Amino acid sequence: MTNKESSSGSLLDSLRGAIDFADQAVQKRLDEEAPGLKVEESGTVISIGNGIALVSGLAGVRADELVQFSGGLTGIAFNLDPEAVGVIMLGSSETVSSGDRVRRTGRVVDIPVGEGLLGRVIDAAAQPLDNRGPVDFKERWSVEREAPPIMARAPVTEPLQTGLKVVDALIPIGRGQRELILGDRQIGKTAIALDTIINQADKDVICVYCSIGQQGADVAKFIGQLRKLGAMEYSIVMVASGDGPPGLRFIAPYAATSIAEYFMEQGRDVLIVYDDLTLHARAYRELSLLLERPPGREAYPGDIFYLHSRLLERSTHLREEYGGGSLTALPIIETQAQNISAYIPTNLISITDGQIYLSPDLFQLNHLPAVDVGKSVSRVGGKTQLPAYRTVTGDLRLSYAQFEELEMFARFGTRLDDKTRETIERGRRVRKVLTQPELQPLTIPEQIAVLLSVTEGLFDELEVEEIPAAEEKIRKAVSGKLPEICCKIEEGETLSEEDQQQIIETARSAVEAEKEEEE
C-alpha cells in the first residue's frame, strides 16, 4: 500500500468517526428537545443493475449493514469504497432507479426463527412461498453468526442414520458432523439427502433443506415428496431460486443455518442440507465480479474459502452446559467430468469431515445409490457407529475392496483361479445388496440382517437377480421372528455369537424358502 493510499484510508476513517460523533450529538439534542425524532443518514443511488447498486452519500455505513431503498427494498452494504458504497440487493431491482434515496438501518441482515417455521416453505428473506399466510415467529436472529467456540463443543458420539445400507455401514455419519456429498450432475446427490430426511421420522431430528439456485420444478418435486411421506412435519424448506436475485442466493445458506441454530441451542438435534454450494459459490463470484473485486483461481475471489468455512464451522455438537444440541451438515456440490480436484470441490473436501462420492459409472450400471466406496470416507462417524455394524462392516469393506481390484482383470478375459472367481462372485452380490431403491430407507435391524447374510455367504448360491426378493424375505423374517434381538441392535448393545447365529439361521431359512419358490 502506498503512502497516498494509507493517508486516504486514515482520512476516510477519521471522516466516518466525525460523522458518527456528529450524529450522536444531534440525536442527543433531539432527545432532549423533541423526543421520538431520529437522525437518519441517507444516500442516493448512482447506478443499478444485475442485483448490484452503487450508492453515494452513506459515509458512516458499516460493512454488511442493512440499507433500505425508498421503495422498501433492502440491501447489504458490501463494498465500502471512498467514492460509493456497493450494495447487494435482496430482491428484484425493477422497483429501484437512479436517484432514489437510500437510508441506513443500523442493523445487519436477520431472519425470523422459531417453532412457527416447522412445515413451512420460505425464501431467504423469510417470505412464505406455500400460500399459508405470514410466518409465525417471536425472535429474529442475524444470518451471520459466530461459530461456537472450541470449548463449547463436545465430541460427536451419536449416529445419524440415513436408512441407506451403503452409507450407514461403510460411510457412517455422526450427529454434529459435516459430510460432503459430491458427484456429477443428475446422478442422485439430492436423492441421498431426501432419503436421509425421510429416515428422521420419529427420531426427534429437525430437518432444514436449503435449495440454492435449483430449478423450480425440481424443488417442487422434492417438497411434494416430503409432504407425501409426512416429512414436512419436522422439516423447513428454504428456497433461493436460480432465476431470483443473486443476493438472496448468497445469504440463503447463512439464513437457513441461523434457523437451524435456534433449534440446536434449544438442545435439539438438527440436520441441514445445502443443495448446492457450487451454485452458491457462483452467485458470490457473480456479485464479486460486478463489484470489481479481483478474481483469483477459476475467477473466484480469494475469500471464497472463507465464505464456506465460516458457514460449515457453525455445524457442531454442543456440550451439555450449552444445551447439548447438534447441527449436522450435508453440503452438496457438483463436479464436472468427475473432477474432484477442481477449486471448489477441494476447498469443501478440506473443510468437511468426510465425503460421499457418487460415481457416474455406477449410475450408468443402475447401481443406486451410486456411491463409490473407494473414494468416499467418513472421518468422524465411525466412532459413533452402533456396535452391531462393527460385526459386519470389517469383512464387508475388505471383500468389496478386493472385488473392485479383481473385477478389472476379469473384464479382459483373464484366466482366473477358483479363489479369485469366488471373490468376484461374492463382490457382485455385495454390490447388489448395497443397492437400494429411492424413498425406501431401512431400519437398523433390517440392514444388519441383510449385511450379515451377505458376509456369511447366504446369497452365494443365488443368481444376482434373485437377491432383492431374498433380501426382502430376510428383512421380514428377522423383524417378525427376532424382536428381542432387533431391540438390542437399536439400543446399541453388542451382538453376541448366539445372537448372530440366530440371525443367520433365520436368514438361511428365508433364503431356502425363496429358492423353493423359484423352483
Mean pLDDT over the residues: 90
Corresponding CATH architecture of the largest domain: 3-Layer(aba) Sandwich
Name of the CATH class of the largest domain: Alpha Beta
Number of helices: 15
CATH superfamily of the largest domain: P-loop containing nucleotide triphosphate hydrolases
Q: Approximately what portion of the residues adopt beta-strand conformation?
A: 15-25%
Q: What does the overall shape look like?
A: elongated
Identify low-pLDDT runs.
Answer: none
For the termini, the CA-CA separation is 84 Å
Helix content: 40-55%
| Total number of beta strands | 16
The third-level CATH topology of the largest domain is Rossmann fold
Domains, number: 4
Biggest sheet, open or closed, and with what strands and sense?
Answer: 8 strands, mixed
Which structural class fits the helix and strand makeup? alpha/beta
Radius of gyration, in angstroms, nearest whole number: 27 Å
Strand arrangement within the widest β-sheet reads 8-12-11-13-14-10-15-16
